[in-house]
């Protein structure tokens, strides 16, 4: 028996009628007649030629095939979760920082620097695995404080292992970035660098200041971004601008200020929506950004001339938490599964110099119970193809720590979805592939 695909959505907007399919990325303006037939599930009354196209495009499916896409994605996900050829390796050479940001989790920790012994154990750890390719990321704290260690580890990976570094990235505050470092990253083919600003200069300097003298850092960071853009033409530089409800105007000022200057460079300026939790850590607080706010925010960016693609894009499923061969290595050789867990001793799953996992319950929960396929509601969700299943770390908090975090896509709110689809169709009207479906 024929039925509408789980991933098909029909809706009326003003005086027009639309059809959307999230699996195949289709949005089309359709006739009221076709809308009526689909709405009433009177599929047999649809002309044969149109019915054939609807089936080919996955709009209509046989009932026994309704979960075929879901099951195929689950099979691929599980295969990728346990494959050994590729390794995700995030290295934290230093948990301290040259900044003294008041909101940073590191302020309550003792800074630790990776030792030569741990570096060597890290190389042994890599060699003990059968991975042939590594996606390498430097993280902190502030990793550039330990630049000597970064060079040392990188050279050891190149000279003492047989792995190919297929991706090379760094997350840095950008303040220490000098010519020597830029030259090193050019020679080692750095693919991506993420640098954060806390808004405009006035606000940034109030929160991202130097530990040694409380001096502001905005000008130095921006100057270093300019140097990196000139000297690392093959490296994508992602400028994250932290915002919440209180400083959204900061993003627009920075976007206007730098978008033209960096127009010819491989630089992206994007909003980093700060996730601030309530005092009980069970949900996001009022000043954080909700889904409706995000959609309105992107509309404002477009009004400023930003190149915003509103069409819901397919998302890859899962993250490091759900991949057995992905590791975040701390400076003492401790292993984490999520960036958010770094320096939290309760979330250490093992050590690089030990063959056995030391916290199996946590690893098993992360691997098996926070996947995009562990929530039964996702199986019948229209937006499953364009959703990663939500943040696995927050899903863990919801399941095991009494969290009440909304981890669904902002497009789950139908008004947000419809508005985004209409804007996309207006922009891409000439590429509409389903005009033939008018009946």
Low-confidence spans: 430-439
Name the helix and strand elements from N-terminus to C-terminus, one letter apiece.
Answer: EEEEHHEHEHEHEHEHHEHEHEEEHHH
Strand content: 15-25%
Indicate the radius of gyration in whole angstroms. Answer: 24 Å
Strand ordering within the main sheet: 11-10-9-8-7-6-12-13-14
Largest sheet, if any? Answer: 9 strands, mixed
The level of helicity is: 25-40%
Describe this structure in words.
The structure is a single chain. With 439 residues, the protein is α/β, with parallel strands linked by helices. Helices cover 33% and strands 17% of the residues. Among the domains are: 2-66 and 429-437, no CATH class; 87-303, Aldolase class I (TIM Barrel, Alpha-Beta Barrel), CATH 3.20.20. Residues 430-439 have low confidence and may be disordered. The protein has helices spanning 32-39, 48-56, 68-81, 116-127, 147-160, 179-187, 201-207, 218-231, 248-259, 291-303, 360-369, 392-400, 414-427; strands at residues 2-4, 8-13, 16-21, 26-30, 60-62, 86-91, 133-138, 164-172, 192-197, 236-243, 267-273, 326-329, 334-336, 350-351. Helix 4 (116-127) packs parallel to helix 5 (147-160). A 9-stranded mixed beta sheet has the order 11-10-9-8-7-6-12-13-14, with helices on one face. The protein contains 13 helices and 14 strands.
Features:
disordered C terminus, three-stranded antiparallel sheet, globular, alpha/beta, nine-stranded mixed sheet, TIM Barrel, 14 strands, 439 residues
